[in-house]
Amino acid sequence: MAGDVPSFGDPTRYLxxxxxxxxxxxxxxxxxxxxxxxxxxxxxxxxxxADGRLIPTDGNPVVTGEWHGAPGAPTVLVYGHYDVQPxxxxxxxxxxxxxxxxxDGRAYGRGAxxxxxxxxVVLKTxxxxxxxxxxxxxxxxxLFEGEEEIGSPNLPAFLRRHAGQFAADLVISADGAQWxxxxxxxxxxxxxxxxxxxxxxxxxxxxxxGRYGGxxxxxxxxxxxxxxxxxxxxxxxxxxxFYQGVAELSAPQRAELAAISFDDAAYAAELGVPAxxxxxxxxxxxxxxxxxxxxxxxxxxxxxxxxxxxxxxxHVTGRLVPGQRPAAVLEAxxxxxxxxxxxxVRVEVTAEPGGAAAYTIDPGHPAITAARTxxxxxxxxxxxxxxxxxxxxxxxxxxxxxLGAKTLFFSFSTADEMLHAPNEYIxxxxxxxxxxAWAHLWRLLGGQLA
Amino acid sequence: MAGDVPSFGDPTRYLxxxxxxxxxxxxxxxxxxxxxxxxxxxxxxxxxxADGRLIPTDGNPVVTGEWHGAPGAPTVLVYGHYDVQPxxxxxxxxxxxxxxxxxDGRAYGRGAxxxxxxxxVVLKTxxxxxxxxxxxxxxxxxLFEGEEEIGSPNLPAFLRRHAGQFAADLVISADGAQWxxxxxxxxxxxxxxxxxxxxxxxxxxxxxxGRYGGxxxxxxxxxxxxxxxxxxxxxxxxxxxFYQGVAELSAPQRAELAAISFDDAAYAAELGVPAxxxxxxxxxxxxxxxxxxxxxxxxxxxxxxxxxxxxxxxHVTGRLVPGQRPAAVLEAxxxxxxxxxxxxVRVEVTAEPGGAAAYTIDPGHPAITAARTxxxxxxxxxxxxxxxxxxxxxxxxxxxxxLGAKTLFFSFSTADEMLHAPNEYIxxxxxxxxxxAWAHLWRLLGGQLA
Lengths: 450, 450
Description:
2 copies of one chain form a homodimer. Chain A is α+β, with helices and mostly antiparallel strands. The first copy, chain A, folds into 2 domains: 2-190 and 358-445, 3-Layer(aba) Sandwich (Aminopeptidase), CATH 3.40.630; 192-246 and 292-351, 2-Layer Sandwich (Alpha-Beta Plaits), CATH 3.30.70.360. Helices cover 32% and strands 20% of the residues of chain A. A 6-stranded mixed β-sheet of chain A has the order 1-2-6-3-7-17, sandwiched between helices. A 4-stranded antiparallel β-sheet of chain A has the order 11-13-9-14. Chain A has a 3-stranded antiparallel β-sheet with strand order 4-5-18. Chain A is globular. The relative contact order of chain A is 0.20.
């Protein structure tokens, strides 16, 4: 069987190229057009075997390409994103974020694991196939966007406009981390996402708390009351209607999750929390994978002086599960907040456009079967877990709607690799494992090992 | 009577000197030692008639001086501060904060009214007396500190060390604004102050809300719950023991305040709030002057991304009235916050040292009588109101303790002049009114008009 897929050698040989890619600060939230184009062009250069090129959008360009040399074989569309999160506080990084730094088998850098490393895995898989065998085992199209980290605002219109060009039997996403490093997993669901901002405004300016104290409502007090009202003290979401449409867990679902080893104490220790916490009546894994959540991501107002701040704001997001409609959940939250009495201040609740519903793929889908087989080939003797992604990949729902194709998440990022945080990294061994797994997957999907 | 006090001419003639003083960015919270010393030296230069000089402290120097040429007359100690608040957001200033800008009878600049303008009033009063009459009507010592805006951390030790040098029959404070521009007032009380910080910590880092959501407590949720628990929804402080020792308002107190014209609607319109708000059962003025308050001055945590923040913080201050002991109030708040259940996070409550009790001076005190007479001379036909300062002047309690002297607040700042905010200003006419009022006050206190 060894001859059926290319050989890749030591994964460290690919690090110089990953370093080049990471060195381009393609932070979509800061949208430096030069950096975004540089990252896109770097990627197009790697896709020379597939006529790699940029297609403009109303935002950052999409990088595309296609290899159609396997007549009769299926066509897959490979999805990923070349944009990265902002670095956040530079002081919290132990190494420069845009200088790939190798330490103890880990490659540190912004984007190393989300999503530049996983994209490199696919590029090298394709290049190895072509170099060693002269062909890929199936037809491949590529769609790498540059706005995933800001919610893909231009992807829907772009995809609808170019739907014919991206037609495929299956989408394979290089984005969407495997959930832990100790065993292989394939994801069968991702959560949806809604986002909203709350802004409480009082006076036209900050007021001296002595000279005005006792006469006006403090917007921070109102905001605190509104935010405290989003949850019960034991961790359940208190917004009426939030859980509408969410199916209660079935006995087989609970059994399936209970069969997966999960060490609450080790997990708490790794995160540094004194105890785990969440909606009562569910195990940690059930809450993480199968229950919707609502989190306040940020609050801001006033400062450290003796003022009554005149504005206080909060950013709130919810992660949805199947059965929840994003628009209905947003409306339920808005109604809950608007119904709370707030004399003396103005409360504005603004829903961010672009909410995403949860996504699922049938565990019996042929792509899932192929993925499990490919992983079993790379991780012999290990159980392949059917996992869920707590994060949101709105592209999957979009591909289903526009292309009529399901999406297989097949990333070799791991969820603990500081995604969106300082000191992001990817395990170097995962690069090699990923290339072998993608090679097996493509061969399986191409029918050559069927 | 006109000949008994110096003449001052048009107040605009003093603006160039105020501009010089304001131009020195003596922001004590940023503590640029060069700027602090420059402001202190400028002030000492103005006090050449009183052997003006700097005395070092463990922080910024005190500027002092004395004129003892009125044997047999009382000695007053004039207090003020040459430090100013930070500018805050420069974008919110319509004019450069350290360039005094005159517009419509107002002189804009950081420190113009808190406390550089009111200090200039005293300096010019003394200089005019000496130039025109060759003498002051009483003995005067000066104490201008450079750390009032950061809570005067070094003043207590300094004053104890130099108590003999500052002995006086009365302290007159150039700090402590009059409460409104429409009528003269003299203050007979100021509120006390306590401050504390709340810090809620969860994981060792911000967590991706999808990849970890549902498994850990969100520190912002806990903070919101703690802050919401500080007040009832109708605006009363909900901390058990907070009101301990606070006397219920007497019928004469209520009648006194009810006799003062106060237009709630105009006040709300000036502040830009949709409605006034505060502890039920009290009028706006009663809440402002006679009731203690507790305000969240600032909150911070996370940002606008989809994270579960790992830290959320709040700064809280209380304004106290007579009968409340700062240490006891702080302990009551700490107990209230610590008693709240907060599973999954750590809550730290840190009291700031240096809480101050409220301060009062008997409305029948001879200094109050002299102040009312002096104001009546400058504002003929207008009622002089006995007002309270909602702000805190910890120096007054300190002077009483160390020097055994009461403090008369006699500032010509007005409470609406954007103290501690962008676009701080002083009314130019107030400079002239202040000089004439100080001149009358000194003459009255010196016994020459008795």
